[in-house]
Design a protein that fits this description.
single chain; alpha+beta; nine-stranded mixed beta sheet; five-stranded antiparallel beta sheet; about 20% helix
Length: about 450
């Protein structure tokens, strides 16, 4: 349980103070300011213990948010609450700054009374809070509206209100993946993983239930749709599609976890508008979109030759966009001559790197860059460590092999079926930390 909440500016001045329990005194405000904000050495730990009092803090821009307690609390819960609190504030008045906090002083105290009760976190869902807390304060509502809010706050489905109606029922689904790679100069994969998330936009009438199917190995095997494969780490379905092994996943609160555990299906009543349905991570059988082949040759102490070949490893019908390769150069570089057949390459002295940009690149293609680097004579005999070549890109497929098998919508009360819903599915793969040692 949280004893008190304090919001400070960069000078250590208190902007917001809210004490929830009697064991927290006013003097703790100064203790955090002196020991953390104005500390002689930078405080790296987000948790600070001062005189048997624990301070959990996060920073947004120049604003400090601190939760104080004398109890043995769950630290992860406190940080999750502080982050949720910042999200709620951002949804009400945009950027979290000193000026915005001062302008919305009354609103923030009203929000703190709703989202935290006697130190226990309550409802932090922005959609529900906005139904009864507005910029102007609490609206005067009819009995029907009041009962609707009460059922939404205390009911089982707190993330969606009843009575939503749309002319066109639409469902948008984006599979967004970030692929991370570290490769040796010889082309050996040292580490690789994909961090993915599914973002949905729901514009559906009533209280529909959605069922969502993915090609997860566990789900496919449980339904008996897998056929024997030579590679035990990758299964193949009867339709020919590969099943991926998801290492871990995290769902939105709307997903019925009991059904996922028993029936292995993702069933949920979606919130209205945009929301993140799930996050997942995979480490096996990743389809790497690009391969970078570097060749660095030192010609004496005053010259260096660099040759970089970029190969795309996806279908020729697909196009990669926003391709950028960053080739590091030594600190004593005096000049660079670059030749590339495709795209534009430029030496940036401020970043000690050659930046090679390609607007679009098709699948199964190869691009090459050659550079001559002139070096200055230095007294430093320490050899250049050769930082890795990094890459940025965007591709229209999921590198993990993630596939949406089906997406069904059921609404028994209203007169529309699954066929009446317009569904859109999009796959986007982006680079995370995509590096090749040279």
């Amino acid at each position: 349980m949280i004893g008190g909440l304090f919001v400070y500016n960069h000078k250590g001045e208190v902007l917001i103070t809210r004490i929830y329990r009697d064991d927290i005194g006013r003097n703790v405000v100064d203790a955090f300011r002196v020991n953390v904000i104005h500390a002689r050495q930078q405080v790296r730990s987000p948790v600070t213990n001062i005189a048997r009092t624990s301070f959990f803090h996060i920073k947004r821009g120049n604003i400090w948010f601190a939760a104080v307690t004398r109890q043995n609390v769950n630290a992860a819960m406190v940080f999750e609450f502080l982050n949720k609190m910042c999200t709620v504030m951002s949804s009400y008045f945009g950027k979290i700054s000193e000026e915005n906090i001062k302008n919305n002083f009354v609103l923030i105290y009203e929000l703190l009374d709703e989202i935290l009760d006697f130190g226990y976190p309550q409802n932090t869902d922005t959609g529900i809070l906005k139904t009864f807390i507005t910029q102007q304060g609490v609206k005067s509502q009819s009995k029907e509206e009041t009962s609707q809010i009460t059922s939404q706050v205390t009911g089982q489905i707190g993330w969606r209100r009843e009575g939503i109606k749309y002319r066109r029922n639409e469902l948008f689904l984006d599979v967004l993946e970030s692929v991370n790679l570290l490769m040796s100069p010889q082309g050996q994969v040292l580490s690789a993983h994909v961090a993915g998330k599914i973002v949905m936009k729901s514009y559906l009438s009533g209280m529909p239930e959605c069922k969502f199917g993915i090609n997860d190995k566990v789900i496919m095997e449980s339904k008996g749709k897998t056929i024997g494969s030579d590679d035990p780490s990758r299964s193949t379905t009867s339709s020919g599609k590969s099943a991926i092994a998801i290492d871990d996943c995290q769902f939105h609160q709307c997903v019925k976890l009991s059904k996922f555990e028993t029936e292995h299906s993702i069933s949920f009543i979606p919130p209205d508008g945009e929301f993140e349905l799930m996050r997942y991570r995979t480490t096996k059988d990743i389809s790497l979109p690009f391969r970078v082949i570097p060749l660095v040759r030192e010609v004496g102490r005053q010259k260096m030759e660099v040759k970089v070949v970029v190969k795309s490893n996806f279908k020729p019908s697909l196009l990669a966009q926003k391709v950028e390769v960053r080739i590091p150069t030594p600190l004593n570089t005096s000049g660079v001559q670059v030749i590339c057949m495709k795209g534009k390459a430029k030496y940036k002295a401020s970043e000690n790197a050659i930046v090679w940009k390609i607007k679009r690149m098709g699948g199964m293609k190869e691009c090459q860059l050659s550079a001559e680097i002139e070096l200055l004579n230095t007294s430093d005999k320490k050899k250049w460590t050769r930082p890795p070549i990094s890459m940025n890109f965007e591709v229209p497929f999921a590198p993990s092999g993630f596939k949406v098998r089906y997406l069904k919508v059921f609404e028994p009360k209203l007169n529309y079926s699954d066929h009446d819903v317009i569904k859109w599915v999009r796959y986007i793969g982006k680079s995370g930390l995509y590096e090749t040692r040279c």
